Structures are given as structure tokens and as C-alpha cells.
Amino acid sequence: MTESTAPTKRLVLVDGSGYIFRAFFALPPMTRPDGTPVNAVFGFTNMLMRLLQDHAQDDIVVVFDAGRKSFRNDLYEAYKANRQEPPAELVPQFALVQEAARAFDLPVVAVEGLEADDLIASYAKAASEAGEEVLVVSSDKDLMQLLREGVSLWDPMKQKSIGPEEVMERFGVAPSMVREALALTGDTSDNVPGVPGIGPKTAAQLLTEFGSLEALLENAHSIKQPKRRETLIANAEKARLSFELVGLKDDCELPLALDACRRKAPDPAKLLAFFQENGFKTLTARIAAVEQAAAEQRQVADQAAEAPRFSAITDMAALDTVLARALDLGRLAIDTETTSLNVVRARLVGISLSVEPGEGFYIPLGHVDDFGQRCQGQLDMAAVLERLRPVLADPSVLKIGHNIKYDIGILARLGVAITPVDDTMLLSYALDGASHGHSMDELASRHLGYETIPYARICGTGKSQITFDQCPVEKATEYAAEDAEVTLRLWRHLRPRLVAERMASVYETLERPLPAILSAMEVAGIRVDAGRLRQLSGTFTQRMARLEEEAHRLAGRPFNLGSPKQLGEVLFDELAIAGAGRKTKTGAYATGAEVLEELAAQGHALPRTVLDWRQLQKLTRTYTDALVEEIVEETGRVHTSYMMASTSTGRLSSTEPNLQNIPIRSEEGRRIREAFVAENGFVLLSADYSQIELRVLAHMAGIEALKQAFANDIDIHAVTASQMFEKPVAEIGPDLRRSAKTINYGIIYGIGAFGLAQRLGIPQAQARAYIEAYFEQYPGIKDYMEQAKAEAREKGFVRTLFGRRCYVPEINARIPSRRAYAERAAINAPIQGSAADIMKRAMHHLATALHAEQAGARMLLQVHDELVLEVPPGEVEATGALVRKVMEGAAELTVPLVVDVGTGGNWDEAH
User: Fold this and answer.
1) Helices 39-54 and 287-305, interaxial angle, to 10°?
2) Which of 85, 220, 835, 896 is the most exposed place for a label (fewest CB within 10 A)?
3) How far is it, in rounded angstroms, from Cα 332 to Cα 65?
């Protein structure tokens, strides 16, 4: 193992005093059995639990204020004098949060006369000088002064990193100048005077211009604005005093030496006693996770002392030994190395195995030399697969992989089945959702403190990159065997968390069954008519040419429709269209889809023409031209790859090609679907959930009128319009129904008056009145929305009906636009996520049912709420009935699930 793979020592400094206040005001009231308030203690304890798991190999120190007075009161008597006494419910919790830290056997430091910020600054400096990295866990703006190489910040309330970009966004200056910015603006919460009338923007402007606070004050007489000049001159000493007050003292004597802050494994008995005393029932089950984190810490230390051993298997006796150990232990981590990420185009190059942490094996099978000849010393592929086949199918041996869907597909094409399986990527996704990425490299770094060998190191990058079969066996062995060994260690770390964090059901019922199902769909692919696509490309190109001519006529001159700069000049400089002419940072006018939609809604013809042109351009580039290139010559089909851990809601996505975004409501989109055709001797069957997200909303929000409408199979949009506009359903015309439909779906995505006005082409005031009328009619929906936002603010995530966590990291963002976006996500995620979970349950049950019936039908595509199957003509009726029964029974809601089934020779006909 090279030096670069050794984890860097890190010291995590937790701002305990800052967190307790924020937790108190963020969480609802809670009391323990004796009546003592504990909401802030509960939040603090949860935060520590997460830190222990996410930083299993790091040292953690919790820092507190020791009192209200510090050396700053000697400098300025009024410092923090305006602070009110803490709420009575918070006072008894100050001591309890320190008890919480000690229950985890974490060092707790506090010194009279010093603030927690000063101790954090001093520990950060000492650790940096000792060559350790530092992570400060705090939301306090004052601590942003500490950001520098080797010192980073983590906001525990928002669950996000704070880096130079965030500091620049907040203060307008780099971290090194935060102290000077604070000295100018002052701080009302701490009674730091600053300079009256100088806000953050002005402070940033002045510091950028003069370079430092002292340079600014010395040259204040040169400032052109009279009032600003006089204010700075008159308050120069206040600024200098403020500079001393906001600065952090980083040379304090450390109450505990760095060596005394080293991590200790928590005592489960001590933790259990603390949780029980404070009534934290849900946390007792998570002690197992803390024990696992401690075990991982010991394991990391052991691995640091002895690097993993990676070796190539070049004789069958060695392979038999590894497989015998797998049979004995009941587990085998496995990974395949190939020439492509596309499961159908890929050729198998080698197989990696691991049965114990610390050692990995690689079986080279298809490596070639510079002349394309097979390298010597490799085992015969057929013989190896024959040895592996019984073990990979043995139900007593668990096969563990990372994104094992791919490996299942690769080996299935060679006639080898893998079952049962566990997937570390999906374990991580079930546990932590979209709170971070789930690549093996990232998880190894996050959970094991281990840096994996990058692919580029052995195969290069860019034009000089080679495929894996061209990589020398010696280099390939370390890279490939490491994959299997790291996967095994990740599995040992992640698996115990499922029960401890009550996520076993999400993983076992929603995620774990899917790799085999999706792998079979990817290998099957779907037939595409290349001639039809080329014909559509020609048609779309002709229409684009006509639209381009129309755009030139409307503009009064030729211009490049694909140039945002030229389009902006035509719209706002030459045609002088008012209302949306805002410029970007580059100085060019913004001409994105939102801007053009807004202008088109106002009745301007050119923006609508450009939008239509862009739509055709996208369809041509993304589908009619690109899909032809994606057809695999040997199969005549396209084989999309499903991404299982890429969305915040649990939805699947697809890539190469992406089949999720074909616009099904447009004529052009439907024509593209015509090119997806059934294999000779088969028909396509489409099964589509009807209005599933509205049904989920009616169930979750408990809206009786909507539930009744769904139960009676009444037009839901007409019912909504009838309720909103107080008219009988029979009198609801197309316009009112359209408005109700737009609101019904818009509510799912947290639509506002501006967005609704754009979609309906009506004034914002009228759109606002529509939304108010909707909430008056369905107050339960408003209640649901507020509850979803409140849950997100408290926990950082919302849940689907089946327990999946959908993380909303920006829910407490200070920037209104980001916070509003997060609030819309919090409203939508449980609905969209529940619909996605229902579809996953349906796919699992349908695959089981088709296998039991020995049906000739097979699933080909999953696109949002729709499944597409290929079915023998003689089985269409039976398969249609089976699919409808399974999909409609995939979940028990207070409204019926309805599935529309259609068949045809192509996808559009079937849909």
C-alpha cells in the first residue's frame, strides 16, 4: 500500500455551547420521565451519534463556554451585556449536554474566562502545528475565521460543509478577512459596536478596495462618499475595539493536551444508562451502531499496522482454497473487471474475491499484451466459471458486491447466476439516502478512512487511457483485489446499522430485490427501429429550419438561435421587450427556459418560436440521433443502465441512454416512442399507474373529498374544480378543469403564485387566489405541507410511507431562494418517494409472479410510473391481468391504486 492511501489524522472540535441553543429552538419540547426538559439534549445526543459513526477513526473533543464573563468584558464592559437570560426550560439542559458527551467517553473542555470559540481556535492551531487535520463542528459565523488549509467547518444543523465559497457568499470576503468584516459590521447579538451604518456588502466592498481594516481606517479621509467617510473617521476606535472583540484567541493554554484527547471506545453500559435516564427510547437501539463504529476504529488501527494483502490467483488449487473458505464462512465479496460500463458491450477481464478483511484476490482472465495477444499465466475462463458456478448459486453463501447489479449482468451473460446477494451501495443508500454519494471510493474514505487506488492511476486518462484488459496483471491485481476487500469491509460496517437505525425494511423490501430484476432488464434491452429514428431526425431538422426562418422574420434579421448572447441582444436590445431583461454575471442577458416561458406567456411570438426550436434540437441530439448510436449491433436493441442510488426520493434513473426524460405529452415525444418496437413474434405491454402521486397525497394528507372521488372513479380534476369554484361537477368546463389539474399537480411540487401564473397564463393575483381557494377547500393538504417542512427542519429529512429517508440539506438555509427550494422538496419528496417505493414493490412482486407462472413475458423498461414488458401474443390477456393485479396490490392505501394497461407493436401504441 502506498503512502497516499494512509488516512490523515483528524481532530474534530464540537462547539457544544453553540449547538445547544440552536437545538433547543429547532426541536419541539421534550421531557424525560421526571419532567426535566431534554429536547436540546436529545438533539445534541443525536448529533454526537452521527459524528461517532461518520468519524469512526477521528478524535473528537466537545468544547463549552464556562460562564457568561470572559476577558472581552475587561476590554469592553458592555460585551454581551444585552443578552437575555436563557429560557427556563434550557437552563437544566446545560449540564445534561456535558453529561451526554461524557456518556460517550468524549473529552469535555471548558475554561473560566475563555469562550468556547477561543478554545476551539487554540486546539485547531495546536493540532495543525502537529500535522493533524481539523474539523470544526459549528454553525457560528465567528468560527469561519478559522477556515484555512487543513481546517474545515461542518454545520451540524444544516448537515453541510462550510467552505470558502459559503464564507464569500455570506460576508463577501475570504475567511482570512472575516474578522475584519465583523469588526466593521459589528454584532448586535454580542453587543459588538462595529461602525454604525456599515453593513456586510459595504464592509466587503471597503475591505476589497483597501485590503485590510487598518488600511481602511488610516485612509478613510480618501473615501468619496461624505457620510461614509465621516462615519468611519468618527468610529475608527470602535472598529479597532470590535476587531479585538471578534478576534479568536488561539494561544490559550490547552486544558487537555492533544495526547489526552485521543479517542476511546464508548462504554455501551454507560450509554444505555444515560439514554434510559433521559427517556431516549429510540436511541437505545442505536448503541449497536456505536459499538460497530468503535470496532471499525480498532479495525482501521489494525489495518494501519498491517496493510491489506492483495494477490493474483493463477492456479486452480489456490482458487479452490478461497472458495472453500467462502463456503465455511458463508460469505464471499465479489467484483468483476471488464472493458466497458455497458453490461452488454463489456467483455470480462477478471474477477476479484475476498472472504476476510485484510486480503483480496484477483483472477486475471482476459488481459492482453501490446499486440492484443492473451497474456501468459492466466487461468482458463470457462474452467474458472465452472468452479465458481456452484458457490455463486449456493444459498448458504452470501455474495457481497458494490453495485452488484452490474456483476450479476456480466456473469448472467456467461451463464452464471449469483444469489443471494447484498449490495454495499444500496446499504449505504437505504441508510443515508442522498445525504452523500455512494461510490465505493467515497464510502471507503467516509467510513473506513481508507483511500482507494484511483482507476486513472493504472489505466490513465483522456486520449491515452487504456481499457482494463490492456493493464498489466501486476498493476491490475492490486486495484481489482482492493475492490473486493474494501467492499467486504464496507459491508461489515454498514450492515449492523440497518437494525440499529430501523432501516432494515427499506433495504430488504425495496432495494435488495432489485439488482437481479434490473440486471435482467438491462441485458434484455428493447428493440429500436433505427430507420424510423433517422426519418424523425430528418423531419425534426426540417421543422427546425422552418422555425429558424420564422425566428429571423420576427427578429427582423438573421441570428444564431443557439447563441444565448445573440438571442438576448435581439430580445432586449433590439426588440426592447420589457420585464425579463436581467443579465448574468458574464454581462449577457439571461435567456433560459424560465425567461422565455415568461415572455411567451405574455404573448411574445419570438420566445415561443425559440422554445419550440430548442425542444426539437434537444430531441434530435438526445434521442433521434443519439439513440441510433446506442443500438448494439449484435442485439439490435438499446440497453439502458439503471442508476439505483442517484436520487433523493428513491426513484430510479437511467443513463446511456436516458429513457426517463422523453416528453410523453408532446407530439414529438410520442413519435420518438413509436421507434421503440416489439421483437418479431412479440407485442409490447405498457402498465402505467394512474395519478399515483395524487392518490398518495390524498392518502397521506387524509383528504376525504379526494379519497371519495378516487374510490368512486370520478374525474379528480373536475371534483377539485367543483370544490374550489363551488359549481356542480357537470358544469365544470375545460378551463376550470385545466386550472384544477395544474393546481393538483403543482401542489405536489410546492408551486407558488408566480409558477402557477406562468403555467396558466394568468395574473399572479388570480393565481394566488386560486391557491388560497384550494387550501381553504382542502386544509388537510396545507397541514400536510407544514408538517413535512417542520419534520425536515427538525431532522434534516422527511420519510416516505415505507420509511425511506429523503434528505433536505438546505431546509434551514439563510438564503431565501435555497430555503424555498428545500421546502418544496420536503413537500414533494414523501409523495414522489412513496410512489417510487410502490413501483419498486410492484417490480419485485411482478418478477416473482412471472417466474411462478413460467410466463414468456419479460420486463424491459421502468420509466417513472410505467412498466413496459415484451409479451408473446398468446399470453397478452393473462399477462395484462396479472400485471394489473400485482401492481394495484403493491400497497394498501386508503384510496385504490389503478393501473392502465395497453398493448401494441410499439411503445406509443401500447401506452
Assistant:
1) 30
2) 85
3) 51
Question: Hey, what CATH topology would domain 9-276 get?
Answer: Rossmann fold (3.40.50)
Q: DSSP secondary-structure letter at 306?
A: S
Angle at 448 between CA 117 and CA 443, to 5 degrees: 95
Residues 6+ apart with CB under 8 A from 459: 465, 466, 467, 468, 470, 471
- Residue 734, preceding peptide bond in cis (omega within 30° of 0): no
- Give me the pLDDT at residue 502, please: 86
pLDDT digits 0-9 by tens, 139-151: 888 999 999 888 9
3-state helix/strand/coil string of 717-765: HHHHHHHHHCCCHHHCCHHHHHHHHHHHHHHHCCCCHHHHHHHHCCCHH
Give the torsion sign (CA, 343, 348, 349, 353): positive
Over 60: is that where the pLDDT of 788 sits?
A: yes
* Grid cell locating 416: 452464471
CA atoms within 13 A on the CB side of 462: 1
Calculate mean pLDDT across residues 504-511. 94
- Identify any residues that bridge with 685 across adjacent strands, giving them in sequence order: 869, 903
814 or 615, greater pLDDT: 615
CA dist list (Å): 690 to 28, 157, 252, 835, 908:
38, 39, 66, 11, 17
Cβ pair 536, 672 in contact under 8 A: yes
Q: What is the pTM of this model?
A: 0.68
3-state helix, strand, coil in the chain (%, to 5): 55, 15, 30
Q: pLDDT tens for residues 699-744? A: 998 988 889 888 988 888 888 888 787 888 888 888 888 888 888 8
- Cα 580 to Cα 110, 595, 600, distances in angstroms: 55, 6, 11
Do residues 439 and 645 lie in contact, with contact meaning Cβ atoms separated by under 8 Å?
no
Q: How far is CA 472 from the centre of its chain?
A: 36
The structural domains of the chain, with segments of one domain joined by +, span 9-276, 307-525, 527-638, 703-824
DSSP letter for each residue of 613-634: HHHHHHHIIIIITHHHHH-BTT
Q: Calculate the CA 873 to chain-centre distance.
A: 42
The DSSP letter of residue 2 is -
d(CA 203, CA 171): 8
Residues 186 and 199: their CA atoms lie apart, in Å, by 9
State the average pLDDT over residues 334-356: 95
- The structural architecture, per CATH, of the domain 307-525 is 2-Layer Sandwich (3.30)
DSSP label of 115 = -
pLDDT in tens, 278-325: 888 767 766 655 555 555 555 555 554 456 789 999 999 999 999 999
Report, as an integer, the average pLDDT of 446-456. 89
Domain 527-638 indexed as CATH 1.20.1060.10: yes
Cβ atoms within 10 Å of 592's Cβ, excluding its own: 9
